[in-house]
Amino acid sequence: MPISSRTALLVIDVQNDFIPGGQLPVPEGDLIVPLINRLGARFTQVIIAQDWHPAGHASFASSHPGRAPYDVIQLPYGEQTLWPDHCVRATPGAELHKDLDLPHAQLIIRKGCNPDIDSYSAFLEADRTTTTGLAGYLKERGIDTVYLVGLALDFCVMFSALDARAAGFNAFVVLDACRAIDLDGSLAAAIERMQVAGVGLIASTEVPGYPPVAAVEQREAAFGSVRARAKQS
């Protein structure tokens, strides 16, 4: 079954700083790149989200004297986890992974550009009112369904999926094409939040075109892998 033109692949933050060896590495983040490339080749509608912070961003621990990475503070828009400096715009760490091969992607959404507001989601900044314009872009093109892949499953992928649902889209997260940070149980919490919101949690073999039996087996394998990583945290 071909993938509908009303369906888009949303690739989240596959950038050097989120790959092992980067400033904010997601374990095994590099391992998903070949799978994302294979999935991307089957979609006509592909959008890439890219973290793109100015130096001194409010989400950086280095911007708050006396604070350390992974501390949680209150900012004017609410609770904020502090991170190591990462994905500073126009630096190598902010670049897309060199092996990501999606030449037909129509749009790159850069997020986290406001120095005072973080943005996990590709749809809304962390103040929950400032939009990136992605929902309007998709709706103008008649897209009603998004498949999400990338990094990190329990932060930027999750928030993008939740906001896609809130904006009226069907949303599916391809578990084996994501990896998580899993900070203090964040992976298990993310899985629960997405399930409650009606986000589909699937394996890559459940993207249209794969045999249904293989899809069920692969979904169980993907869920098993996610659960195993959550239990190890």
Annotation keywords:
single chain; 233 residues; alpha/beta; Rossmann fold; 5 helices; 8 strands; 19% strand; nicotinamidase activity; metal ion binding; hydrolase; Nicotinamidase
Architecture overview:
- With 233 residues, the protein is of the alpha/beta class.
- The chain has one domain (7-230): Rossmann fold.
- Helix content is 27%, strand content 19%.
- The protein has five helices and eight strands.
- The protein has a six-stranded parallel sheet with strand order 5-2-1-6-7-8. Strands 3-4 form a two-stranded antiparallel ribbon.
- Helix 3 packs parallel to helix 4 (186-197).
Topology:
Elements (H helix, E strand, L loop, with lengths): L6 E6 L20 H8 L5 E6 L20 E4 L2 E4 L25 E5 L22 H7 L4 E7 L1 H14 L3 E10 L6 H12 L2 E3 L9 H21 L1
Parallel strand pairs: 1-2, 1-6, 2-5, 6-7, 7-8
Antiparallel strand pairs: 3-4
Helix pairs in contact: 3-4
Pfam families: Isochorismatase (PF00857)
Pathway: Cofactor biosynthesis; nicotinate biosynthesis; nicotinate from nicotinamide: step 1/1
EC number: 3.5.1.19
